[in-house]
Structures are given as structure tokens and as C-alpha cells.
Specification:
Oligomer: single chain
Strand order of the largest sheet: 2-3-1-4
Helix content: 25-40%
Number of domains: 1
CATH class: Alpha Beta
Order of helices and strands: EHEEHEH
Structural class: alpha+beta
CATH topology: Alpha-Beta Plaits
CATH architecture: 2-Layer Sandwich
Distance between the termini: 38 Å
Number of strands: 4
């Protein structure tokens, strides 16, 4: 299941926790947007983990499913790869 996950989380601590969960399942493409391609079981697992973290009256998470045909027509203008500012880097 190829899905776009977008979220708006009010509290910075919850925001970081939600980002870490979604990062376990997909790739960050913008600050609060991830591309996730998992089977139904993993998708259900991810949603349950997110629901445990958020406050429904303050936060919002949206899941946009993409069919294979739609996913293949994604257009990118400008930067095609998001560089995660929270990612750990090693300098050699």
C-alpha cells in the first residue's frame, strides 16, 4: 500500500515522536510529509502507534492512498530528494 502521510502536530514533543514513528515505515519527502509503502498489517500497525501519540483535539494526521498508476505519475519540480535536517550524519 503506497500512501502519503501528512501531519500537523501542535506540541513539539509529540511532533518529534510522530515523525520517528512514521520514519520507521517510510521516507520523509518534506518536513511533515512521508511516503510510505507497506502491506496492510504494517499500515495498521503504524496508524495504531500514531494514534497512541496524538491528541485528536489538537493534532491532525491524514493518509492519502496512492494506486500504482497514480504513484507512477508523481511529478517533482525543484528538489527531488528531501534531505532530513534531523538525520544523523557522520563526518569522516
Amino acid at each position: 500500500m503506497n500512501t502519503i502521510v501528512a501531519y500537523d502536530i501542535a506540541d513539539p514533543r509529540r511532533l518529534n515522536r510522530v515523525a520517528k514513528v512514521v520514519k520507521d515505515y517510510g521516507t520523509r519527502v518534506q518536513k511533515s510529509i512521508f511516503e510510505v509503502d507497506v502491506d496492510d498489517r504494517r499500515f495498521t500497525e503504524m496508524k495504531a502507534r500514531i494514534e497512541e501519540l496524538i491528541e485528536a483535539y489538537e493534532d491532525g494526521v491524514k493518509y492519502f492512498p496512492l494506486c500504482e498508476k497514480c504513484a507512477g505519475t508523481v511529478e517533482i519540480i525543484g528538489q527531488g530528494v528531501f534531505v532530513d535536517p534531523d538525520e544523523e550524519y557522520y563526518v569522516l
